[in-house]
Design goal:
alpha/beta; globular; nine-stranded mixed sheet; TIM Barrel
């Protein structure tokens, strides 16, 4: 990370790939209207990633926190969903502080591999084997959502599920590019292991952002 890049972060700016008002398409909050803030930058490089354009933070626009919150106010949104990329590559303490002053509900999806920051109303942990989550995330999360690309991912899901608290909601999500295969895999698994729920990417079926 270059000195110029760090300076932008210090000036209350976040590298943003895109921001938009839409409907949450995945997991526990499926169907809820929310303003999405997708950060630029990710150090995971998942082979099935559907946001590869987010991987390099330096190529994205640095947007002031105030500008993001002003954009939210132009919509009917009462909730912000922060996603990526991997948002917690950056410190979100100040972002959450300012957003809470506006009375907004704050949700985040993260892999949990970086230092925890921010005050969130809902934390969705989407853990990745190549860079496992820190324990602090298992202690704080509301939702565990594991992407299923191949059979071995069920073992990873169960390993993670052993670390969550009793109130955490468990989801398995079929990987989209192989949905005809992964969808059946997930349905069969959940039928045999009903502690899990199925998450599908509703927004892709509805063809919305």
């Amino acid at each position: 990370m270059t000195d110029a890049f760090k300076e932008e972060l210090d000036n209350d700016k976040i590298p943003i790939l895109e921001e938009f008002y839409s409907i949450q398409g995945e997991g526990f909050n499926t169907g809820k209207a929310a303003y999405f803030v997708r950060t630029g930058g990710c150090d995971l490089a998942c082979r099935w990633c559907d946001s590869r354009e987010s991987w390099k933070p330096e190529v994205h626009q640095f947007v002031p926190i105030r500008q993001i919150l002003d954009a939210v106010k132009k919509t009917a949104a009462d909730t912000i969903v922060v996603t990526g990329g991997e948002p917690l590559m950056y410190n979100f303490d100040h972002f959450c502080e300012k957003a809470k002053e506006e009375g907004l509900t704050l949700m985040i999806e993260t892999c949990g591999a970086h230092v925890f920051s921010g005050k969130w109303d809902w934390i969705c942990l989407s853990p990745k084997k190549q860079k496992p989550p820190k324990q602090v995330y298992f202690d704080k999360l509301n939702e565990l959502k594991v992407i299923i690309y191949q059979e071995s991912d069920f073992d990873w899901a169960e390993e993670c599920a052993q670390k969550v608290h009793d109130n955490c909601v468990l989801f398995l999500q079929p990987e989209w590019s192989r949905f005809e295969i992964t969808g059946k895999m997930v349905v069969d698994y959940v039928k045999n292991n009903p502690k899990w729920n199925v998450s599908i990417q509703t927004h892709k079926f509805l063809k919305i952002p």
